Amino acid sequence: MSLASLTTGILVTGVGAPPGLGTLRSLRLADADLNLVAADINPLAGGMFEPGTPSVVLPSASDPEAYRAAVREICTDRKLDIIIPGSEAEIAALAPVAREWTKAGLRVPVAEPDVVAFGIDKGLLLERVKHVGLPHPQTLQPSCVDDLADWSGGFPCVVKPRTSRGARGVGYPGNADALTSMWRETAAAHGPCVVQQLIPGGAETVYTIGSLWNRGDLIVSTLHRKLQTNPPTGGVAIAGETVDDPELMAAGLAVLEASGPWHGLAAVEVKRPTPDAPAYLLEINPRMWGFGYLMTLAGLNIPALLVRMLAGREHLTGHIPSTFPPYTPTRMVRSWQDLEIPPSTETSR
Question: Where is the signal peptide (predicted)?
């Protein structure tokens, strides 16, 4: 069956960032007849102007009730029956109602709130992997400045917010005085922070294990690595390539299995400084990963498989290649695309 016959329409959110925009483009490539609606909190987000795709502006998910009300209204008005959220904040807002909405016919492929929490709170995730004995950087979770005296992981180290996105708020103090100063500033701006051992290696030593789950059952997993990031010290990937490494794949899936059961999309970032070193956990992203479109180019369209999975596992038959890995060697670089957009209706100043 065609993809369009399995859904009345799909709301893809967060289209101003690579996960949402890549999802939108992957679905359009999979079936041009799909009823897709792009959404973002920013009316000038690039994905809001994808050719042939209507768009809507959503309120911030920082107000979960208002966000959920807006999403329900949009899906009802436009006859949409699937939501693919593109950001952690949106997933956190939708997780408490996902099962209820799905039973009512509006399918929301996100995990239960207690599982989603592992993809939002780095401190919580690190406690879980430490408990089950998986490789992770030495970590301190100070509750006050005095706790920093317990840091024994050497310098430079890493200071990062427990709930940050990308490289926001991440710093690399080189001594104890710098650690104290940076921890104060970061905690004031971003909330509770963790201090971690700095794992050596550049962007090319950071790997992402992407995965699609159906109520705890793994449908398919992928593996790629970053080749370059912005900023270079770590952040949004601007170049990457697919990877075939069963040991790295198993390391990432072990983290997801320890923190699950997952439903929908989830990705693990690990860092392996040398081929013979362990793969140290960095974080989980409980959504489509930023380089998901790389897999579409490599022959494995994850968003299309997600839609088929939501329609029933039988609709996946014949759509997942029997080879491992189920994708071809592919490299991708992100580049700017200049788009002309409609003139504003507001008076120019």
Answer: none
> Which long-range CB contacts under 8 A does 240-246 form with residues at least 24 apart?
240/291, 240/294, 240/331, 240/332, 241/294, 241/329, 241/330, 241/331, 241/332, 242/294, 242/295, 242/298, 242/325, 242/327, 242/328, 242/329, 242/330, 242/331, 243/207, 244/325, 244/329, 245/207
Q: Are residues 220 and 176 in the same domain?
A: no
273 close to 200: Cβ distance less than 8 angstroms = yes
Query: Tens of pLDDT along 28-53?
Result: 999 999 999 999 999 999 999 999 99
Whole-prediction pTM = 0.94
Chosen domain end from 92, 110, 128: 110
Is pLDDT above 90 for 349? no
CATH of the domain at 303: 3.30.470.20
Q: Which of 162, 117, 118 is nearest to 139 (CA)?
A: 162
Could you tell me the residue range of the domain that residue 302 belongs to?
203-333
Segment 237-265 shows an average pLDDT of: 96
| Residue 133 lies inside a defined structural domain of this protein | no
Residues 6+ apart with CB under 8 A from 144: none
Instruction: Give SS3 for 331.
Output: strand
Strand ranges, E, within the chain = 10-13, 36-40, 55-57, 82-84, 139-140, 157-161, 193-197, 206-214, 217-230, 236-242, 264-271, 280-285, 331-333
Work out the number of other CB atoms within 10 angstroms of the CB of residue 132: 11
Strands (E), 111-232: 139-140, 157-161, 193-197, 206-214, 217-230
Measured between alpha carbons, how far is residue 17 from residues 24, 159, 275, 330 in Å? 11, 24, 31, 21
What residues contact 125, with CB distance under 8 A and at least 6 apart? 118, 119, 255, 259, 281, 283, 284
Judge if 73 and 173 occupy the same domain. Answer: no
Number of domains in the chain: 3
In this predicted model, what pLDDT tens digit does every residue of 102-154 receive, in sequence order?
999 999 999 999 999 999 999 999 999 999 999 999 999 999 999 999 999 99
